[in-house]
Amino acid sequence: MSNSAQTSASRRIAALLDENSFVEVGAYITARSTDFNMAEQETPADGVVTGYGTIGGCLVYVYSQDASVLGGSIGEMHAKKICGIYSMAMKMGAPVIGLADCAGLRLQEATDALDGFGKLYLSQAMASGVIPQIMAIFGTCGGGMAVSAGMADFIFMEDKSGKLFVNSPNAIDGNYKEKCDTSSAAFQMKETGLVDFAGDETAVLEQIRSLVSILPANNEDDMSFSECQDDLNRMCENIESCTGDAGLALSLISDNNFFMEMKKDYAPSMATGFIRLNGTTIGCVANRTELYENGEKKAAFEAALSAKGCDKAAQFINFCDAFNIPVLTLVNVKGYKAKLCSEKRIARAAARLTYAYANAAVPKVTVVIKEAFGSAYLTMGSKSIGADVVYAWPGASIGMMEPAEAVKIMYASEISASGNAAALISEKAAQYASLQSSAEAAARRGYVDDIIKAAETRQRVIAAFEMLFTKSEDRPSKKHGTV
Fold it and tell me: What CA–CA distance (Å, rounded) separates 54 from 456?
């Protein structure tokens, strides 16, 4: 071990990895710059402990920054050590976990430090979509290091001492830390959507262990399976009552009710996360109109797509597609959020979500659990944009818009001339619902593969993914899309 063996950097590694599994790499490396009296500075391990170990027996590579050495600042050799870990992880096909506590660039090393940062960015870019990248922030993560965090697939943050920022709160015109701490975990979770989970140090490390246990080691690994201890034919009793909170519905469907939600506090009307079905990791996207905690209703949302929700879901689907994780979608959406802040970005955001679904080559199963109207439904993993299997619960509505609203447009002149407009609207709406806006109507046209009992959702979805296990389809030859 390096001279920094007893610092928080090494203690975090020991707490994260399986007991006695960590092997340090580059323990004797120190800063080699001699400018500004650097030769007289003690820089054990150059401020970062690097190496490899196991989590649940699975190989991972890890680096942990040591704030006791020049504030954990990144210099030439510091960055070189992290890049070396990335190089080893790419060769072996194993995740990289970064434990950040960094004062930023080391000013004494100037362009050498800048070059090191650039090479770290390059290593992360080359690793993106090949191996999972996880970052946990325990102290300061500012400036260029925040960009490095943004390149990770998942970000965890200590909620008291963790600070994540590109510009310090006090450096933003009209702002100061006491007014709005833009570097706090709360802000980065709720406002920016950059952080997936926040908590104390113990909770953060435990969440990372849980995440690693369900993710593939790399984009070619199919060993993220576990033995299923749950009944494959188990009925999801009372799941109909969970149409509002899709997170509860997903936990009922999953093996042993496991659901690991990502970015829960950001755009909560769109739920994203991982479940297990027959021991296989499945990525899930679902519309949410209600949020319950400990049986108590905490919030209600429109059944509408927001720009933030679309961005959140698109990023998640892209990750699942890169690592061959099948995608399950639960649909309950009426349209797009009609707010000025959302309207500024909704067209582009919805386009990206539509593209993410259409472009994903992994098995895709969609279940319409309540309402699915207009192009917002198309965006949510419909048969039209490439879903392999689409189910609907009895009573689900699928169509252009709500029947009553459609009738008001179609029969506008008759309604205005009618002596009993309400009765006419009711009559025509029932007819429209039967002919054009029901699950049965969609199924007759092949847009829904089957109408299933809600309680049978688990067994039917498991069977669909089992059937799709060997899915393979040709795509146009191109470098990449541009949406």
Answer: 38
Query: Helix (H, G, I), strand (E, B), or coil: what is residue 443?
Result: helix
Structural domains of the chain ordered from first start: 8-214 (3.90.226.10), 239-402+437-467 (3.90.226.10)
Query: If you compute the radius of gyration of the chain from its CA atoms, what whole number of angstroms results?
Result: 25
Question: Which of 113, 54, 60, 55 shows the shortest CA–CA distance to 86?
Answer: 60
Please calculate the CA angle 464-469-472 and round it to the nearest 5 degrees: 115
Neighbours of 256 (CB within 10 A): 11
Assigned token pair, 91: 């060769």
Closest listed residue to residue 462, CA positions, set 226, 253, 258: 253
Over residues 220-246, the pLDDT tens digits come to 987 678 889 999 999 999 999 999 999
Q: Which tens digits make up the pLDDT trace of 380-439?
A: 999 999 999 999 999 899 987 676 776 677 767 777 777 777 776 677 667 666 666 789
Q: Which helix (H) or strand (E) holds 315?
A: helix 307-322
Using alpha carbons only, give the angle 396, 402, 408 rounded to the nearest 5 degrees: 150
Closest CA to 328 of 458, 481, 473: 458
How many angstroms from the chain centroid is the CA of residue 98?
Answer: 18
Is this prediction's pTM over 0.70?
Answer: yes
Token representation of residue 320: 């699942």
